[in-house]
Specification:
The protein is α+β, with helices and mostly antiparallel strands and about 120 residues long. The chain has one domain. The strands form two sheets. The protein has a three-stranded antiparallel beta sheet with strand order 1-3-4. It has a two-stranded antiparallel sheet with strand order 2-5. It starts with a helix and ends in a 9-residue tail after the last strand. It comes from Caballeronia jiangsuensis. This is Lipoprotein. Keywords: Signal.
Length: about 120
């Protein structure tokens, strides 16, 4: 009986810790992604692809792919903007300038940073 009680307490502790850590989970929830706004592309044209690649992760290295997003404005070097949240009240925006070039990586993150500048 003592072993069963100890096991039950241990299981209850694990379940409680799992519930606490899940409540504090900080993962990416994409709000919007736009590829080529500087060239006249529609707002949000990269949202679907960005969501597929990054939602639910704590950090995501996103490389825009014209085959997945589309490229209606071919003759222009495009920028990329991503908007995401980590919690209900924590919003972020990151951007690649057109000069960054093809195969550039935009990093989205919900990892809390400490130290200088943070």
């Amino acid at each position: 009986m003592t072993i069963n009680r100890a096991a039950a307490c241990a299981i209850a502790g694990i379940v409680m810790l799992a519930g606490i850590s899940g409540a504090e989970a900080r993962t990416i929830k994409v709000i919007s992604g736009t590829y080529g706004a500087n060239c006249g592309a529609a707002n949000g044209n990269a949202t679907h692809d960005l969501t597929l690649q990054c939602d639910g992760l704590d950090t995501c290295q996103y490389v825009p792919d014209k085959k997945r997003i589309g490229d209606a404005t071919r003759a222009c070097s495009k920028d990329l903007q991503a908007d995401w949240r980590c919690t209900d009240s924590e919003f972020h925006t990151a951007m690649l300038s057109p000069e960054a070039g093809m195969n550039s990586t935009l990093v989205l993150s919900c990892v809390e940073q400490n130290g200088p500048g943070h």
